[in-house]
Amino acid sequence: MVGNKKESDFKSSLVTSSLANDSTKQGQERTPTASAARWLDDVVIGMPLCPFAAAARNGTRIVQINTDASQEDIIRQISSEMRGLAAASLDDAATTLCVLPPNTQYDDFVEFMNEVVAPCQDVADALWDEINGGLSKEEEDARADVQVVPFHPRAEFEDSPDACVDYSSRAPVPVVHLLRQADVDAARVTWPLFGGDDTDGQEFLDLPAINSRRLRRVGREKLEEMLATCQRSATVSSEDRIAAHPADVRTEADGEALLVWAAEQGANVDALRVVRTSPTDMGAVTSRPLSRGEPLFELPRSLAMSARRLAEQSDVPYAAAVRSAMDACSEEDAEVPLAVALAAELALMRSKTPGPLASYVRMLPSLALLEMMHIDVADRKVLKTVLADTLLLTDLQARWAWLDHARATAANALSEGNCDATADEIAHAFALVASRAFALDGEGDDQREVLAICPVADMLNHSPLAHDALLTCLDTDEGSYGVRAHCDYDAGEQVYDSFAGAKLLASDTFVRYGFVDLRNGDPEAIRVPTSALRLPESSEAGIALLDYLQLSDVTVSADATSGIGDDAIGAAAALTATDDELAEAGWSGDAKHDNDDASSAALAEDVLASLLSLAPVRARASSHLQATLSSMAAHADLAIERTKDGSSFVVASAHASVRNESCALHGAVRALELRRKRDI
Questions:
Q1: For strand 272-278 and strand 281-286, is the pairing parallel, antiparallel, or unpaired?
Q2: 514 part of a folded domain
Q3: Roughly how many angstroms between the first and final C-alpha of the chain, as a whole number?
Q4: Where is the segment annotated Disordered (predicted)?
Q5: Which residue, 31, 114, 293, 511, is most buried by CB atoms nearer than 10 A?
Q6: In which domain, by residue range, is 193 found?
Q7: Could you give the count of Cα atoms lying within 13 Å of 89 in the half-sphere of its Cβ?
Q8: Rounded distance, CA 28 to CA 40, Å?
Q9: Distance, CA of 640 to CA of 658 (rounded, Å)
Q10: What's the DSSP call for residue 59?
Q11: Average of pLDDT values for 646-671?
Q12: pLDDT surpasses 70 at 672
């Protein structure tokens, strides 16, 4: 699965539901080990603070230490865990969390460090001497080098540059983390493989600095809230009686009817209930406790309804309209046939002759609700005003242009299929598909991704912390789909899925899905179209070079040390170089270049490298890029002011996205200044 989008995602992370706060306060206390496990799954892996923790999760042992015993007995318990870890095979990722319960003397951080952590470090040193004392370097057992890493709810360090950074060492309960140096060394080797995009231009030892930036982006308030959630089970029950927003006409009875209908279609949904989670949201909660890795639900393949599947079903009255849309569209327009199907279902509902998906359609958010939450149906005039001259508006306008054409295509298909859908119903349907459809792996020999509507699956709200909680194929033989729990869930607790671990920029999530959620501290980054870097005097040969390289945009980030890459400066170089300079670098505007020729592709890359090696070109490119990005940052700063008092979820999300844009552009400008000083 590539990604999944749901209506509940529209809620900006800046607009926090009162339910989430109340349920965190009123929920049941988790056991100490359960709190530590949730912290490991949601914070350490979910953010992620440690890119290797996910791979080692199945080999992680979590044990509770008996603190009623004497200090010597406590150290003895942890020492026993050290020996067990040292004896484990190096072929298996292994680590141990020794958890101390709250409400003891070790709630004091200094007491914890002096009375538990320091003696444990002495034990670790003694263990090394005991096992490897007198042995040669070649004979030493690497497993005996056990590291002791403390985590504590009140961890605080004098040299922290920011209070948020202390959260890299904070856990909901006191924890002594035992890990082997051999595993750390292995992680160092695999860092480029597991580190993700954040590792670009970074070294393994930069991980603390990367985490510091990530934690500061999330902010102290949200970090504290995340730890509080780890300590308590945030259950949601019908007894909460959350009042629905007037624009949201869905009820929990509709949710129950959806599950009954899905079960009749062969789905296993016994572990779920659908309840109201906020005035504008419905969500799925557990009907019983669930263990990490257990399926939250299981859907037969027939409930993964692609346009092709709907077009082939004899009981679908709008099948002809869907087929017409499929014939008129390319793969890039996969949303159109599904929108046709939903528009037809909405029209049937209006005419009091519900279609085959009626139980599902009743659980879809109304157009009035979506107009407050999703950019596809939001007030364009308002967004054009508050986002004037920003890159975000440029992205939105491209989406709107495609959307206008797609709606016209859908209207023609519906007319040809004799379906009486209104313009509002078509617009409503496109917003639903954009926010709820799933991109699934292809079937059989055709492995191309398929866009599909998946009832029940889209009742799960999205969380960027739900690591690898993806809609995927659970049983190849039976052809069933489902989502596995990314952590242990208590009964009545809301369950979540994720976006397949995709590294989505804030602008991506806002433009495509209508929300911005940076709880996992994704970096502030923005894509700048290379067309925005063009000058009136830009050489046609330089423009052709970028077209040939398919360099339509470059990504810049807030990281002042790596926020500007050679691709951005290279694009500016191509657009500021003269014809003579391009020719000197080996590129001619009238040269015949074959895009399919590997040697020609290498030539173009060499040309860009040659341009960057010309000092006058590089200096001119850097100066132009800095001026352009500074101007863009100034426009983003103005938009921040215009959106800060947004009266809707859309404007609040736009505010979050444009703040991200400003931060990325200012960071890129600082990065350019550093690079220019270095070049000088």
A1: antiparallel
A2: no
A3: 47
A4: 1-34
A5: 511
A6: 28-233
A7: 3
A8: 19
A9: 6
A10: G
A11: 90
A12: yes
What whole-number distance in Å separates Cα of residue 566 and Cα of residue 573? 10
**CATH number for position 440:** 3.90.1410.10
What φ, ψ does residue 306 adopt, rounded to 5°?
Answer: -80, 170
* 3 state SS for 134-195: CCCCCCCCHHHCEEEEEECCCCCCCCCCCHHHHHHHCCCCCEEEEEEHHHHHHHHHHHHHHC
**Secondary structure of residue 392 in the 3-state scheme:** helix
Alpha carbon distances (Å) from 131 to 87, 134, 139, 397, 632:
11, 9, 11, 66, 61
Locate all alpha helices (DSSP H) within 232-300, ordered by sequence: 252-264
Kindly state whether residues 252 and 154 are assigned to the same domain: no
Under DSSP, is residue 292 helix (H, G, I), strand (E, B) or coil? coil
Q: How far is CA 391 from CA 166, 303, 525, 526, 657, in A?
A: 34, 38, 12, 8, 10
Q: Do 271 and 416 lie in a common domain?
A: yes
Using CB atoms within 10 Å of the CB of residue 575, give its burial: 0 to 12 exposed, 13 to 18 middle, 19+ buried.
buried
Range ranked top by mean pLDDT from 12-21, 176-185, 418-427: 418-427
| Contact between residue 589 and residue 574 where contact means Cβ atoms under 8 Å apart | no
Sequence-separated (6 or more) residues with CB below 8 Å from residue 63: 33, 81, 96, 97, 98, 99
Phi, psi at 15, each rounded to 5°: -105, 85
Residue of 370, 361, 367, 368 lying closest to 257 (CA atoms): 361
Inside any domain, residue 473: yes
DSSP state of 272: E
Asked if 480 and 548 sit in the same domain, the reply is: no
In a domain, 11, yes or no: no
**Could you tell me if 225 and 97 lie in one domain?**
yes
530 and 455 belong to one structural domain? no
In this structure, the strands spanning 146-151 and 60-64 are: unpaired
Q: Tens digits of per-residue pLDDT, 610-645?
A: 988 999 999 999 999 999 999 999 999 999 999 998
Q: pTM score, two decimals?
A: 0.88
Structural tokens at position 136: 């040669």
- Do 107 and 213 have their domain in common? yes
Pick the closest to residue 413 from 525, 507, 338, 505 (CA basis). Answer: 338
Whether 222 and 245 map to the same domain: the answer is: no
Contact indicator for 329, 336 with CB cutoff of 8 Å: yes
DSSP-H helix ranges across 219-275: 220-231, 252-264
> Any bridge partners for residue 96, and if so which?
61, 178
Residue 500: the pLDDT is 59
CA 465 to chain CA mean position, Å: 8
